[in-house]
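Run log, item B.
One chain of 464 residues. Sequence copied directly from the ordering sheet:
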Amino acid sequence: MSWKAARIAAAASATMVALAGGAEAQSEEAAAETAESGPSATDPVDEPGRTTLEELEEKIRILAEEIADMQAEEAVPVEDITIDDGFSGLGPAASKVYRRDRGLSIGGYGDVRFRGFVNNKEDQTNIFDALRFVLYTGYKYNDWLVMNSEVEVEHGSTSGSGSVSLEFLTIDFLLHDMFNIRSGLLLIPMGFINEVHEPPFYFGAERPEVERRILPSTWRENGLGIFGTFDLGGGGDIHYRTYGVNGFDGTGFRDNGLRGGRQKGSEALSDHFAFVGRVDYEAGDLLPGLLVGGSVYAGNSGQNQNRDLEVSPGVTENFMVPDAFTHIYEFHVQYRGHGFSIRGLWAHSFIDDAGELSRVLGFGDGSSIARQMIGGYAEVGYNVLNFVDTTHSLEPFFRFEHLNTQYRVASDFAKDRSREYDLYVYGFSYKPIPQVVIKFDYRDFDARRGSLADEVQASIGFVF
């Protein structure tokens, strides 16, 4: 029993005793007044230790307030949230339900972002966007069965480019630290951002381009799998997640990445399935704060579809979409300690039948879906308030990215060299408390061909 519950129980017991004592005293007084003449029943009577009606009412009022407070805290517990509070790869707020004994858990995050364009030759318009608001709702039925979910409102509305989406919806069977079962709409466990995408826990107002184009965050598919942790004692921990999910819809692939191939759990085509697996090693006492890992995805993406293609003026033929076996792997390393936050990631994707897929989808000679895409980034940030006893943090950071979504194309297609670029991101994150962040950054694009406008961004984000 919590201290608050114990306090309420004690107050309730005291109130019941007082009520009983008061009632007994009033009964005795009434009997005495009937047997003999004496003071009127309406006259005030002050006796030491006697509980008056007003005192009883005040105790009942206090008791009711205490019960209401406890019910509110039990329904939506107030707690500090840090990046170390994640469970099975999920973000800290998404993991709140696992830290409860049982019952309902509510969390969430959101951010509002301004994006301005510099050296803007395409006359792009500056954007001020209520980018997203997310609610996590979970329910822990008992110590081994948990429902968890994430619902997101993007761009402040369902009109225009806005939407309301289910980001994940899972039922977990918590059987053992080393072996658990997860089913439903699953976040694909690749990279850093796809599972932990809450604004206070990554640098920059925009997520890394590599994790948007090749590891298309936020990427989720329907499926079933297992996860767990092997405790190596002082040697650290090994975490794993492996799922079987519906495959990509390859008709959504483009020359700038795989993002359009996500099916997002919405009536997902399921003639082709895929496998995804991830392993992470946390060094523990050997080197606190170090994480090293990797993941792999493999599966067909054609989904046995057909497309009509105009082969000559006025002549259309029906073609089968190729299987387009898709294979992605990524490696990552992270260190957090002594005020530093350091990350590195490399991703590489392979698409079989990319040339045939491009032809069926009507791509021209100057653009196509690539057989291979590559990308990686390295970033470092440092909390300059690390040696100050404060809840505040101020972290200047720098990130370098290289992205090429036209790394290898089919022999009868030409590369679109504008899809290969370096990106330099300079900025800072200021947190008055760990759950709220103010970000500013400058994104400097260096394209191999053509030009991309640089960007200035500012955002405010939160998690609860």
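Observations after the first pass:
- Residues 427 and 441 are 4 Å apart (CA to CA).
- The first strand starts at residue 103 and ends at 118.
Flagged for discussion on Thursday.
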